[in-house]
Specification:
The protein is mostly helical and 295 residues long. The chain folds into two domains: 43 residues, no CATH class; 230 residues, Orthogonal Bundle (MetI-like fold), CATH 1.10.3720.10. Helices cover 80% and strands 0% of the residues. It is built from 13 helices and no strands. Helix 8 crosses helix 10 and helix 12 runs antiparallel to helix 13.
Length: 295
């Protein structure tokens, strides 16, 4: 009997501690509900019901058939895809130079990339305005030197200015995983290929690129996700006729006070972002599982 009691008591003693441990889940859940799920539910209810609180898909049909929404989603996807491709190309080239071309300051530049990631995006747009804007350094210098009446460089206030700004901001998000991947690459393979007469382009194509492909796909998916939701750069540059979904939400909610339309566009933007995030996580999990299996 004493043995049974000794066995029963520890089991009974563990039950309250397990219940107490489960209570620790409540505070983060409450915070998540208050900060995300409740506001998101209000957005969905406003998008479906409008001011009349009659739930239907009529608001989605009305908004999604407008030219303004079509232009917004077209600009969003075009800018995001173009910027992501530019980030992939530029990030891959820069990472190759830093990792495989020895030069003074390469390690410092690698550390600088981490610092650059932490900067707010509007700082790049502000710097571009100071350098390439109508009253910027380059235009003013050219106008004074060549005696021009109008600024010769006007690309900043177009979609190309937005794309170049986003490439500048998000290229480090490609370089960081690439540099980590290149640091783990077996240099003996490159040395052997080079000793056998392989040219640099062949080494890049057959050795470096296959090893970097998982990092490129993961980084490119992350850049696509971030550029789809970019708001500060588009707003700060103020490119003419370049209205993306985040900027369209801002215009409808803040300037026109059309909250129903803003909520409909916000739901579409959230759905697009979640879809891209699922793709990003699937790519990371797929290549992570392959590496684990190979290990």
């Amino acid at each position: 009997m004493s043995a049974d009691t000794a066995i029963a008591l520890p089991a009974g003693a563990r039950a309250p501690s397990a219940a107490l441990r489960n209570l620790w889940i409540a505070p983060p859940l409450l915070i998540l509900v208050a900060l995300f799920f409740y506001p998101f539910a209000l957005i969905v209810m406003q998008a479906l019901g409008g001011d009349q609180h009659v739930f239907s898909l009529a608001n989605f049909e009305r908004v999604m058939h407008t030219r303004q929404f079509a232009n917004g989603i077209y600009n969003t996807i075009q800018i995001a895809v173009s910027a992501s491709i530019g980030c992939l190309a530029l990030g891959f080239i820069f990472s190759l130079v830093i990792a495989f071309v020895p030069f003074p300051g390469a390690r410092f530049i690698g550390r600088l990339i981490d610092t650059f990631i932490s900067l707010p995006t509007f700082l790049v747009a502000l710097a571009f305005t100071f350098v390439y804007g109508s009253a910027g350094l380059i235009n003013q210098s050219l106008m004074q030197t060549l005696h021009l009446q109008f600024p010769p460089l006007d690309f900043l206030y177009t979609r190309w200015g937005v794309i170049l700004s986003e490439i500048t901001v998000y290229t480090p998000f490609i370089m960081r995983p690439l540099l980590a991947c290149f640091s783990q690459l077996d240099s003996a393979q490159i040395e052997v290929a080079s000793s056998l007469g392989a040219r640099p382009w062949r080494i890049i194509r057959q050795i470096i690129l296959p090893a970097a492909l998982p990092s490129l796909l993961a980084g490119g998916s992350l850049c696509l996700l971030l550029t789809v939701n970019e708001f500060g750069i588009v707003l700060f540059i103020g490119a003419k006729d370049v209205i993306t979904l985040p900027l369209l939400i801002y215009n409808k909610a803040i300037q026109e006070f059309d909250y129903t339309t803003a909520c409909v566009i916000a739901v579409v933007n959230i759905a697009l972002s979640l879809g891209l995030y699922v793709c990003y996580r699937a790519i990371v999990s797929f290549f992570g599982g392959r590496r684990a299996a190979l290990g």
